[in-house]
Structure formats: C-alpha cells, structure tokens
Amino acid sequence: MSQADTVFQSRSDGISAEGVRDQYADGRAAKVWEIFIGDKKSRTENYRNFLVEKLRENGVRRILDVACGTGVDSIMLLEEGFEVVSIDASDKMLKYALKERWNRRKESSFDNWVIEEANWLTLYDDIKHLLNGGFDAVMCLGNSFAHLLDNFGDQREQIQAIRNFEKCVKPGGLLLIDHRNYDNIMDTGATPAKCVYYNSSHTTDIKTSVLYVASKPALVTLDYQISTGKDISEFRLSYYPHKLSVFEEILKTIFRGAKSHEIYGDFKPLTAVTNPAFYIHVVQKASP
C-alpha cells in the first residue's frame, strides 16, 4: 500500500452536516482527546496568561470560539468572565461542551453559553443571528484550523473560512489563530510530542508522515499514541501544513489595512524564541 493510500484510508468517514469532513466523527478520537487535554486546570500558565491578558488589554468582552471542540477553552474564558459563543463542526466533540453547560446551568454565565454546530465554510451565514454587530474577538486555536484540508490545491477553502472569520470580527476587534510550525515539521519529519497549550500527565508519542503531491507538501498525518494509565490509545489525524510566510500573507490580504498583525512563537515574541512548536497570529481589524 502506498503512503497516499495509507493516509487517505486513515481519515474518518464521517461528514459534517455542511459537507466538510469531520475527523472526530467516530467518537473515538474525541473521547481520548477529552481525557488527554483534561480541564482548564491542565492549561499551561503561559497559555492562559497570554490569552486572557491579550483579550483584556484590547477590551474584549464577547468572544466567538470557532473551534471549541470539547469546550475546554470556552469554559476557561467563561470562568474568567467573558461572554462566549462556541461552535464546532464535530457533534462528537460538542457533546462534552453541552454536558458541561448542563452540569453548570445554575451559573448564569453557563446558562447563557451559546453552543452550536457550524461549519467554517458557511459560518457567517450560519450565525448571522448571533453577530449583533460582530464579536470583539474570534479565536481559532490549538492547531484547529489545520484540520481544514486543501481539497483544490489553491487554498480556496482556507481563504473562504478566514474571510468568514473576518466578517464575524467587529471593526477594531481581534482574530487569534494559530498553526503548528509546519516549516520545521517538513524540514525534520518530526513533531514535538509536548503541546504548549496543556500539561498532560499522559505519555504521548507522535509519528509524523508528510504526503507530497506534485512535489509540494499537501498533507501531514500525525499518529498519536497516548497512554491513559492501563491502556494505550492510538488515533490518526490529518492536517494541512501551513507555511508561516504563506499564512501571514493570506491574513494580510484578508485583513487589508489591519491595525496590527502580531506573530508569536509559543506565546513569546519571535525574537525571544528559536524554532517554536506553534505560531500564534493576533490580527486587529481596522476601524471604520
């Protein structure tokens, strides 16, 4: 079997309602991922401090989390006093967020927490009824955006999704979006097992494969092996390998005339870190 056959056969057969492939559709990866990430106390101090401080210093009150997954980041932000609308394309991931909302429904912030299944390619039209002039911040973190693959070879769907994000940000508001350091992954063929977003007590091994199409990297497959105590759980996820320079240019084009576009490496200025595991973009939309 060729590498391409191995990669594409490993992807989930689940399709979300709007037509974009849901890699968590069988529920297995979602369940293990929830155990692996844990609750908000498992988030690293660097990440929590970076995110909360960046939001507060820009006067953010209302946030759209477009990759809420099991809800761990949204929950953290609700507990920090923000108003959060959370969406995800995977109903298997959302069920954990919905369960937490139900369990904490007596808290007003959780009772008012809006959770919906939605797709990035139709996002703006899907949530028009929730915009109310736009969100103070839209966030897509945890390497989530790379789940959207390049099905046409020209990144048209990624561009469409980011345009939808931009339309949901009010003038002067923020987009926070990240991706792994795929430049280094493609150079070395390896992916750091430790994530800067959470402190996991579970042993993790990640095997990395890169699929090339017409001599261009088109797909990175990560085989996760996670020890959850007695058992070893394995699952595979596929990602589009965003190059930093290309991603930066796409954001500049879509957020033309942006007030600012800051790039961080593992939550630090790029001048303070060498070869980060993650790049985090913070774009401030232009005011009228």
UniProtKB/TrEMBL annotation:
GO terms for cellular component: cytosol. GO terms for molecular function: folic acid binding; glycine binding; glycine N-methyltransferase activity; identical protein binding; S-adenosyl-L-methionine binding. One of its GO terms (biological process) is protein homotetramerization. Its EC number is 2.1.1.20. Pfam families: Methyltransf_31 (PF13847). Signal peptide: none annotated. Keywords: Cytoplasm, Folate-binding, Methyltransferase, Phosphoprotein, S-adenosyl-L-methionine, Transferase. Residues 62-199 form the Methyltransferase domain. InterPro entries: Gly/Sar_N_MeTrfase, Methyltranfer_dom, SAM-dependent_MTases_sf. S-adenosyl-L-methionine binds at residues 24, 33, 43, 67, 88, 119-120, 141. It is found in: Cytoplasm. Its main location: cytoplasm. It catalyses: glycine + S-adenosyl-L-methionine = sarcosine + S-adenosyl-L-homocysteine + H(+). Belongs to the class I-like SAM-binding methyltransferase superfamily. Glycine N-methyltransferase family. Homotetramer. This is Glycine N-methyltransferase.
